[in-house]
Specification:
Chains A, B: Keywords: Amino-acid biosynthesis, Histidine biosynthesis, Hydrolase, Methionine biosynthesis, Multifunctional enzyme, NADP, One-carbon metabolism, Oxidoreductase, Purine biosynthesis. The structure is a homodimer. By secondary structure, chain A is of the alpha/beta class. Chain A has ten helices and nine strands. Among the domains of chain A are: about 30-115, Rossmann fold (3-Layer(aba) Sandwich); about 140-260, 3-Layer(aba) Sandwich (Rossmann fold). Chain A has a six-stranded parallel sheet, with helices on both faces. A three-stranded parallel sheet of chain A has the order 3-2-4, with helices on both faces. Strand 6 (about 185-190) of chain A pairs antiparallel with strand 6 (about 185-190) of chain B, so a sheet runs across the interface.
Chain lengths: ~290, ~290
Amino acid sequence: MSAKLMVGTELAAEMVASAGERAKKLVEETGVQPCLATVLVGDDPASATYVRMKQNRSKKAGIGSRSVVLPAATTTEELVAEIGKLSADPAVHGILLQHPVPAQIDERAAFEAIAPGKDVDGVTMHGFAAMAFGEPGFVSCTPGGILRLLQAYDVPLEGAHAVVIGRSPILGKPAGMLLLASNATVTYTHSKTRDLADIVRTADIVVAAVGRANFVRGDWLKPGAVVIDAGYNEGNVGDVHFEEAAEVAGLITPVPGGVGPMTIALLLEQTVEAAEAQTRAVSETVAHQLDHLS
Amino acid sequence: MSAKLMVGTELAAEMVASAGERAKKLVEETGVQPCLATVLVGDDPASATYVRMKQNRSKKAGIGSRSVVLPAATTTEELVAEIGKLSADPAVHGILLQHPVPAQIDERAAFEAIAPGKDVDGVTMHGFAAMAFGEPGFVSCTPGGILRLLQAYDVPLEGAHAVVIGRSPILGKPAGMLLLASNATVTYTHSKTRDLADIVRTADIVVAAVGRANFVRGDWLKPGAVVIDAGYNEGNVGDVHFEEAAEVAGLITPVPGGVGPMTIALLLEQTVEAAEAQTRAVSETVAHQLDHLS
């Protein structure tokens, strides 16, 4: 292979360590431990594994977790009510709803029950628009992780042509918006795109977020392109045919060890950030009330 | 010229007539007249003209209007408070904040003071995400008008390559999202894009939304391309060099008479829709309360 690897593992470990330090500092200064609530609906083993992994990483970083597990037959109303309770609970700073949820649930309604200030996974409509408009808010963790990786490897984004393959609300769409906010020229491609390979061949940066194993082939790439594989398919296989792509690309993320660890790192970082912001808001309110009393 | 004109005037007149009929029906059935509140800050003559035009068209369609005019020195807080009052006022169904607002104002904060159910101009973060995700909500009027025009002229969108020039939050960005929702492949280009002409030459559909007179030239176009000129610059000039482009394009919007009238038509249509929805919600609440009383 000729491509250089973009390794997420190390960078993610640094981010998690730094989040852990901030968490520790918050506990020392205020007695508040950041807390991430995870919500899992049903008994899909892969989803259960993801949630457990996120809880374990949280614990290692000194972030508390609250685990909500609901039966597969949960209704939208029940899930919305449960998430609403977490949104209102001052001891919970961040909320992660593991997706996909069972088919009978209106996933969008469930996401929207997450208070924007606790949307540390970046799945709400408010979060999406904030990413698109450069307003304050939490980013979707995988797209946000991709941006950090590109920055860490000094990939020039301004004026670069980024082709995003896939347009899901939590991956493709926000990834494109974050790249656009970094002044890249962004093309959204998807299942209805004609001549996909030809379009990908014009890309300086390719983000594969389509959920199909080995979908992007080596001869789709411009020599020297930066290839970000956000796919994670059965058998630890990405959306990019790694062996072929690595012969052509300039930089490429491995699967696993590329985008995946960055996603979790960003989740933890944003949970700590949420806890800091909420704690600050509470102490400002208290100070304000004390002012009024004196 | 070889291109066929995409005339907005006629289609817009039909839409306004239909909105007028719905407004009349609402008055007859419920006594409620749809009402659009316009908010103008400062004394920019062009903005004042736009607002007056929108009020006149509203009146012709049987839509009432409420006019709020604020001094150029208005602060963000004052404007937000004023818009908040309109958001809470049950006699107001739609709110239009004429932009641009004076530089000292945080325009985003002002837009966000518009209740999503009254955001008939489609400028809120919620509205943008709704367009991107295909959720219920009002569309930005110019992008929404462009889509209607493309549909009226039977332009195939699925799989077509649409290149959007410009990325403003109320024009370029939502136009791209609406085209993407219609299964087009969408490329966002802007001031930092390299080789813009080459990219535009790959487009089946070009949306020019950059605000620079005669910016898009004829030799940037693929023969037969559909050219949407959303620009409106001094002297009634669009963003596209019309004479050159009309020699190459298959379909092209004139300026004026193309996108412009569609924008206002959609504003009126959405105002009536908002009035219908709000009136329906009120009567459902009343029915519910009567149920409880009986």
